[in-house]
Design a protein that fits this description.
Elements: H1 7-15, E1 20-23, H2 29-42, E2 52-59, H3 60-65, H4 67-79, E3 82-88, H5 93-102, H6 105-108, E4 116-121, H7 124-132, E5 138-142, E6 148-151, H8 157-167, E7 177-180, H9 186-195, E8 199-201, H10 216-224, E9 233-236, H11 238-243, E10 252-257, H12 260-266, H13 271-284, H14 307-330
Parallel strand pairs: 1-2, 2-3, 3-4, 4-5, 5-7, 7-8
Antiparallel strand pairs: 6-10, 9-10
């Protein structure tokens, strides 16, 4: 969610009872400096040696593309004392897991605890490597319903989570697994918790907030997608062709709003033409030809509201559903 999150969204999620991440794939050292100045002022009562209650996410293949720049970005994040680092979408994520642990920035951070390492997986095989070889702190099981990038052949979140939980040791030694993909409300979160997830990740729901850096036109496209139902989104590389970002690992593509970009790519329009049309549409706010990443849960979203209200609604729905489930045991 490099273009859908920022320091403000992460802070507001954490303040409201969740744990906020910033997608830092396209950040720079200058942006990070501004981020951490804002984050520190947002938690004025935080004890000096305590980690900042937010996380930062990085894309593996982008780190690989410029190794020294990638290491510098990770060092800056560690030096500023974040509580967690999230890694995804790389052909050699393990080397970046090792770097987070061995970074000299850990010594400079003057903290007792290194950042927790979250690794996003799209298959059982990836989960087993993350758990058994990399010894990560948290596994994020991302199903096909997820917005943005993910596995092109990944099963549903329900199936993937079930398979991963069944494959991991049952003796309490496995890292916690959290579910990601397609969730829009607390009822869905409750379902994954009862399935065995240690938590849940929501992304698209926070795009429909005043704090999200998504443009008004993109947010309008998300709201309009509700009327299209399950067909509103599609897994494709068309949006990457339009944005000239089709450099992901071979098993990765993206899910976004289906629009004329997808129609043109499927019809064989050359990518340069698609990119030119997309650039113009983005400049004028033409929703029919702009890149809008979104998960399948967008069909259940119908309004823009502040993050604190989204979090309160999610919590209320979650508690209500879990209480309802408990009543089933009494009947």
């Amino acid at each position: 969610m490099a273009l859908g999150t920022n320091a403000q969204t992460a802070v507001e999620v954490t303040r409201s009872g969740g744990f906020g991440f910033v997608g830092a794939a396209l950040s720079t050292p200058e942006i990070l400096k501004q981020d951490f100045a804002f984050i520190r002022t947002s938690f004025p009562n935080l004890e000096p040696n305590k980690p900042l209650p937010v996380g930062y996410g990085f894309v593996g293949w982008l780190l690989d593309k410029n190794e020294e720049a990638g290491k510098r970005m990770i060092d800056i994040v560690i030096e500023n004392g974040v509580q967690a680092i999230w890694l995804a979408f790389g052909n050699d994520i393990g080397r970046w897991v090792d770097y987070v642990r061995s970074s000299p920035a850990n010594a400079r951070a003057h903290r007792d605890r290194r950042p927790l390492i979250f690794v996003q997986v799209t298959s059982v095989e990836e989960a087993l490597v993350a758990a058994n070889e990399w010894k990560v702190d948290v596994i994020v099981a991302q199903g096909t319903e997820a917005g943005g990038h993910g596995g092109s052949a990944t099963p549903s979140t329900f199936v993937l989570l079930s398979e991963i939980l069944a494959a991991l040791p049952q003796d309490g030694t496995a890292p916690p697994v959290i579910a990601a993909g397609g969730m829009a409300n607390g009822t869905q979160v409750a379902a994954y918790l009862t399935l065995g997830a240690a938590g849940a990740v929501l992304g698209t729901r926070f795009l429909l907030t005043p704090e999200s850096p998504y443009t008004d036109a993109q947010k309008a496209a998300l709201l309009a997608a509700r009327t299209a139902g399950p067909c509103a989104t599609v897994r494709t590389l068309a949006l990457d062709y339009a944005g000239d970002t089709a450099y992901w690992p071979v098993h990765i593509n993206g899910r976004g709003i289906r629009n004329k970009i997808v129609d043109d790519v499927e019809a064989g329009v050359d990518h340069a033409t698609v990119q030119a049309r997309c650039k113009v549409a983005t400049e004028v706010g033409d929703q029919s030809y702009m890149i809008v990443w979104a998960g399948q849960g967008v069909a259940l979203m119908n309004e823009i509201k502040p993050i604190k209200d989204v979090m309160a609604e999610l919590h209320a729905d979650l508690v209500k559903q879990l209480q309802k489930s408990q009543r089933l045991l009494k009947d």
